[in-house]
């Protein structure tokens, strides 16, 4: 890839403009005892803006790559990083769509999908995540204790990255689709590559999520298990898509809290 000017050179402030806000106040995690803020992550063709948080104590710290929803690295994703840092992790979320659009200005979900998400090559995404992991290992993270967590489209990308990087110890995918349309730049689905899964994966899904067929998820899990890998799928019957996103009307507090506890336990169990 050639060096280029990225559309986004810094992260958006506040929350995405593309979805309605929940009536209740979203969770806010403070930075007491943390080092947290915007960072620059070198990649093959420039530098991605990102957000990182880690304990303000000597490392190296176990590391978790946090993969955004389709809406960018906004305040919800930043807060997820701070929540993980409070648990002892270095958490870093690269803005993976910085080359394509300024997500801070986009209001229309359909335009985000058509003009940004479907134009983002999977090969570039995986390479950017590799660079984010390398950045973390040189900024206080422990490369031997590496995990990945993603939400919505980021859950789909969590599956893909766990099928790509043999250095991962564990992965947690929140309501990540595993099937769907392919294209020359997005040639394989997580379901297609499930037999190549390289670390234990926990999938957290909503039973009322009309956008994801649970049969596809279970099929992906079965293919990975047949190949000798560990996969656990938990479906929360009363939850819909985005049930962990506390800034959206889809938020389901009880299930979100249980899913978060399961995610932390999963990382601990498998050495992150």
Topology:
Layout (H helix, E strand, L loop, with lengths): L33 E10 L2 E10 L5 E7 L7 H12 L3 E5 L14 H7 L6 H16 L3 E11 L1 H10 L7 E5 L26 E6 L7 H13 L4 E6 L16 H17 L3
Parallel strand pairs: 3-4, 3-5, 5-6, 6-7, 7-8
Antiparallel strand pairs: 1-2, 2-4
Structure description:
The chain has helices spanning 75-86, 109-115, 122-137, 153-162, 214-226, 253-269, and strands spanning 34-43, 46-55, 61-67, 90-94, 141-151, 170-174, 201-206, 231-236. The model has no long low-confidence stretch (mean pLDDT 96). The protein is globular, with a radius of gyration of 17 Å. It has a single domain (34-269), classed as 3-Layer(aba) Sandwich (Rossmann fold), CATH 3.40.50.1820. An eight-stranded mixed sheet has the order 1-2-4-3-5-6-7-8, with helices on both faces. With 272 residues, it is an alpha/beta fold. The protein has six helices and eight strands.
């Amino acid at each position: 890839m050639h060096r280029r000017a990225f559309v986004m050179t810094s992260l958006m402030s506040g929350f995405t403009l593309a979805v309605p806000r929940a009536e209740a106040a979203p969770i806010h995690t403070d930075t007491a005892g943390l080092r947290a803020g915007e960072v620059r992550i070198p990649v093959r063709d420039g530098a991605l803006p990102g957000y990182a948080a880690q304990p303000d104590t000597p490392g190296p710290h176990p590391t978790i790559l946090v993969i955004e929803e389709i809406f960018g690295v906004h305040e919800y994703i930043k807060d997820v990083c701070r929540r993980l840092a409070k648990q002892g992790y270095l958490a870093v979320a690269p803005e993976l769509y910085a080359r394509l659009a300024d997500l801070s200005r986009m209001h229309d979900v359909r335009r985000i999908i058509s003009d940004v998400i479907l134009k983002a090559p999977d090969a570039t995404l995986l390479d950017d995540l590799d660079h984010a992991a390398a950045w973390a290992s040189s900024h206080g993270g422990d490369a031997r204790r590496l995990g990945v967590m993603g939400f919505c489209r980021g859950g789909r990308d969590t599956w893909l990255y766990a099928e790509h990087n043999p250095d991962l110890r564990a992965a947690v995918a929140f309501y990540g689709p595993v099937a769907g349309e392919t294209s020359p730049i997005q040639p394989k689905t997580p379901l297609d590559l499930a037999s190549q899964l390289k670390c234990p994966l926990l999938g957290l899904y909503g039973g009322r999520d009309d956008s994801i067929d649970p049969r596809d998820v279970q099929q992906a899990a079965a293919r990975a298990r047949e190949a000798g890998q560990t996969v656990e799928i938990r479906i929360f019957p009363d939850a819909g898509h985005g049930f962990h996103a506390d800034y959206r009307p889809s938020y389901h507090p009880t299930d979100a809290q249980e899913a978060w506890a399961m995610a932390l336990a999963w990382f601990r169990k498998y050495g992150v």
